[in-house]
Amino acid sequence: EVQLVESGGGSVQPGGSLRLSCLASGFNFNFSLVTWLRQAPGKGLEWVSHISSGGSATYTDSVKGRFTTSRDNAKNMLYLQMNNLKPEDTAVYFCAKLPHRGQGTQVTVSS
Length: 111
Fold this sequence. Notes:
Strand content: over 45%
Helix content: under 10%
Largest sheet: 7 strands, mixed
Distance between the termini: 40 Å
Order of helices and strands: EEEEEEEEEEE
Shape: globular
């Protein structure tokens, strides 16, 4: 059974930083493409980033240069380092091994 558990969300002021973590189990993490999604209030799911098994990451335009996705295959962990956060980054963030995803962690950016 695929299980994904996110942590690290919280409330920060604009310009602040957060690091999200995701512990994965139930599938061969080392050889899997894993994904970060987010859902802002009243909006649909948005793809944020994914990272290949080899560590190559791709980002949606709105977060390029601010967010960094990384992975630790030895620990089955996925990370999302978010810097220079903006109010429009407010959302529930999910890690995913599509079509499966975790329950999400709330990120709120507000002054």
